[in-house]
Specification:
This protein has 351 residues and is mainly α. It has helices at residues 18-30, 37-40, 46-61, 67-80, 84-97, 100-107, 115-129, 137-140, 149-169, 183-197, 227-239, 247-258, 270-276, 284-295, 302-311, 317-349. The termini are far apart.
Length: 351
């Protein structure tokens, strides 16, 4: 089976030890897929791998909210970000929950018949499009209560990050020739994962994997839930990619993301040149990669990676993964701010 990796060549999971090996072991039992490309592609940066897994596990997989509900949020986010790999993956996982009709309705681009399901899918999509000081209200209309906020918000932010990493570093297809887009294949894949997906998982068991990973304070939206320290660790791990940018380039990336309105950038490179042209020539390839990772990761090409390698004195796979992660998490932070504004208002007025 051809490998779905692009731009990097990750080491096979069975060759890894330490923290990475422990992550893969937990992936096998709790996610049901030991060699999930979504995580294998992060393995050059073990702290990033562990933190990404912990955020996903403690939001999407563990907790009290129904898995189907959280899969719909993840799918809505993936649709908004134009990540076909993740859309297909969550369609299979919806099949695994046992709701086959819902999975196929969403796969066809339809609206779920259940109003609660429809609202969750729409909210997931709105977390990207509802940016800006006056456009955040659609995201404020959350179809879940305060108790569910850590799981649903954590799921949305996890996949805003994962979508970007996947779009940048993997091909579009989970299976050769896009076989996952066939209904029978999706259904069979769901049945194979059904037992794992329907198991109840104990919250917090991924956190020991983060020992020794620097982390700041957990976000307000997480409360005391385990996803809070996991998200803080991801913030720190992804932030390390900023070290691959000079101060001026890093500031340009942050400014561009701060000015972003949630839309997909226009075709052509004019919007990138606006932010990168004032930079020193040697710093432009890295800034371009980070900006694309934030706002349009599916447009990153081999030529972009080669330009970065030519300009960087030590162009290792780990550095490329971290650079992409820095751009991706810059967008996540922007989205988190939009989601958290109404959350903070709700904290002031009560549940």
């Amino acid at each position: 089976m051809p490998a779905p990796f692009r731009l990097t060549t990750p080491a096979p999971p069975e060759t890894l030890t330490g923290r990475s090996a422990a992550v893969y072991a937990q992936l096998a039992t709790d996610f049901g897929i030991r060699r999930a490309p979504t995580f294998v592609v992060l393995s050059p940066a073990p702290d990033l791998l562990a933190a990404t897994w912990a955020v996903l596990r403690e939001s999407l997989l563990a907790g009290r909210a129904p898995r189907t509900a959280k899969e719909l949020v993840a799918l809505g986010v993936s649709q908004a970000n134009r990540c076909p790999f993740c859309v297909d993956a969550h369609t299979v996982l919806l099949h695994a929950t046992g709701d086959h009709r819902l999975a196929e309705t969403v796969a066809r681009g339809g609206t779920p018949a259940d109003p609660e399901h429809a609202a969750l899918l729409a909210w997931g999509k709105a977390t990207r499009t509802a940016l800006g000081p006056e456009a955040s209200e659609p995201a404020a209309e959350r179809p879940f209560g305060a108790a569910g906020a850590p799981e649903f918000i954590g799921t949305a932010l996890a996949f805003h990050f994962i979508n970007r990493m996947v779009s940048a570093l993997l091909t579009d297809d989970m299976l050769p020739a896009g076989l996952q887009r066939l209904r029978l294949v999706r259904s069979a894949g769901g049945r194979a994962l059904a037992r794992t997906v329907r198991r109840e998982l104990e919250p917090g068991t991924s956190l020991p994997l983060l020992r020794g990973v620097a982390a700041g304070p957990p976000p307000d939206w997480a409360g005391d839930a385990p996803v809070g320290p996991a998200f803080a660790a991801l913030r720190e791990a992804a932030g390390r990619g900023g070290e691959r940018l000079g101060e001026q380039a890093r500031a340009a990336v942050v400014a561009a993301v701060d000015a972003w309105d949630g839309s997909h950038p226009p075709l052509g490179g004019g919007w990138i040149a606006r932010w990168t042209a004032p930079l020193p020539a040697a710093g432009r390839p890295a800034a371009r990669l980070a900006l694309l990772a934030a706002l349009a990761p599916y447009r990153i090409t081999e030529a972009d990676a080669e330009a970065w390698r030519a300009a960087d004195p030590d162009p290792y796979d780990a550095d490329l993964v971290r650079l992409v992660a820095f751009g991706a998490f810059s967008a996540v932070s922007r989205i988190e701010t939009s989601i958290q504004r109404p959350f903070q208002r709700a904290r002031l007025t009560g549940p």
